[in-house]
Amino acid sequence: DAVTSLESAHHYDTREDFFEEAYRVLRPGGVIAVADIIPREGASQGLAARAGEHIRRVILQSPQANFYPISAYIEKLGRAGFRDVEARSIRDRTYPAFTRFTRERLFDREMAHRMDPLVARLVDIAFARLDFWGPLDYVLVRARKPA
């Protein structure tokens, strides 16, 4: 009746294969619900932006084929057969809080023995100074397999 994917579809090789398989296994009238990380619509395409995109994809372990904005996402769900696609960004309610939480934990005593100090510093710099999440969106998507 339902397929869910929480912060994982961007890892699949490829997301389109996941959409097709979800469509195949769902009963008619079934629903797919996804929380996913994607590039923001109209993100910069300059050399620095492309280098940042590559670094983000490596860190997030997302294949290049899955790095597209919401307009393409909706189109690909439609090509897989889904209808009544609803998508909305909740990036403003997720990334700031996640960034604060992560930066606080990076230098917490409990975490200090688990993480190399250089790695902790690099993550801190990426999150705080390089606006790591700036070009990324965090979306909730829901679609239905026709009855």
Question: Please, could you describe this protein's structure?
Answer:
This protein has 147 residues and is of the alpha+beta class. The chain is 46% helix and 20% strand. The chain contains six helices and four strands. The chain has a four-stranded mixed sheet, with helices on both faces. Helix 4 (91-106) runs antiparallel to helix 6 (117-128). The protein is elongated.
**Overall helicity:** 40-55%
User: What is the overall shape?
Assistant: elongated
Give unreliable regions as ranges: none
Main sheet summary:
4 strands, mixed
- Strand order across the biggest sheet? 1-2-4-3
The overall pLDDT, averaged over residues, is 86
Number of strands: 4
Cα distance, first to last residue?
A: 11 Å
Strand content: 15-25%
| Main structural class | alpha+beta
Number of helices: 6
Secondary-structure element string: EHEHHEHHHE
- Over the alpha carbons, how many angstroms does the gyration radius reach? 17 Å
Q: Mind sketching the topology for me?
A:
Layout: E1 2-6, H1 15-25, E2 31-39, H2 47-60, H3 70-79, E3 83-89, H4 91-106, H5 109-112, H6 117-128, E4 136-144
Helix pairs in contact: 4-6
